[in-house]
Amino acid sequence: MRRTLPFVIAAFVLAVLVIVVVAAGGDDAPTAPATTGPPQTAVFTVATEFAYAPDLWLAVPDTPIDVTMDNQGTVEHDWTILSESIDGESEFSEDLVLFRLYAEAGDVVEGTTQPLPAGTYQVICTIPGHFTAGQEGILRVTTG
C-alpha cells in the first residue's frame, strides 16, 4: 500500500497537469474578430447556407476596409455592401452595389473597399435566393 499511494498521487498530479495544458492550449484555428468594441480597418466573415457569421461588422469611416470571406458553404456566396437597404430581391439593382466579394464553395477571398463615410450599410448575398433565405448582415461604419 505504501508504494501504491505515491504512484496514485503522482498519476493524479500528472493527469491534472495534462488537463491544464490541453485546456490552455486551445484550438489553433483562426477566430473571427469580435463584432463589438472599437471599429476596425479589417473585417472577417464566414459564409454558409444561408448566413454570415458574424453578421455585424464595425469599421472605421473614410478608410479602406480589408474584407476576408471564408466560404464554408457548399455553394457560391458573395458579400455585397449596398448603398441603400432593400427588403427583397426584387428591389436589388447593380446600381446599389458599393462593394462585392465573391467566393466559390470552399474558397477564402479577400478584397478592399473604397473608403466609406460613416453610416449603416446592408450587406447581402446577391446569389439568387440567398438574400430571401436570410443571408444578410449589417456593416456599421462609425468612429466608436
Labels describing this entry:
144 residues, alpha+beta, Immunoglobulin-like, 5-stranded mixed sheet, 4-stranded mixed sheet, 1 helix
How would you summarize the topology of this molecule?
Elements: H1 4-25, E1 42-48, E2 51-53, E3 56-59, E4 66-71, E5 77-82, E6 97-103, E7 108-112, E8 119-124, E9 136-141
Parallel strand pairs: 1-4, 3-9
Antiparallel strand pairs: 1-2, 4-7, 5-6, 5-8, 8-9
Question: What's the multimeric state?
Answer: single chain
Instruction: Describe the sheet with the most strands.
Output: 5 strands, mixed
Question: How does the overall form come out from the CA principal axes?
Answer: globular
Q: How many extended strands? A: 9
Distance between the termini: 65 Å
Specify the structural class. Answer: alpha+beta
Classify the helix fraction into a percent range.
10-25%
Given the structure, what is the number of helices? 1
Low-confidence stretches: 16-34
Average pLDDT value? 85
Detailed description of the structure:
By secondary structure, the protein is an alpha+beta fold. The chain has a domain at 42-141: Cupredoxins -  blue copper proteins (Immunoglobulin-like, Sandwich), CATH 2.60.40.420. 15% of the residues lie in helices and 35% in strands. It has one helix and nine strands, in the order αβββββββββ. It has one helix at 4-25, and strands spanning 42-48, 51-53, 56-59, 66-71, 77-82, 97-103, 108-112, 119-124, 136-141. The strands form two sheets. Strands 3-9-8-5-6 form a five-stranded mixed β-sheet, with no helix packed on it. Strands 2-1-4-7 form a four-stranded mixed β-sheet, with no helix packed on it. The longest helix is centred in the N-terminal third of the chain and has 22 residues, at 4-25. The model is unreliable at 16-34 (pLDDT under 50).
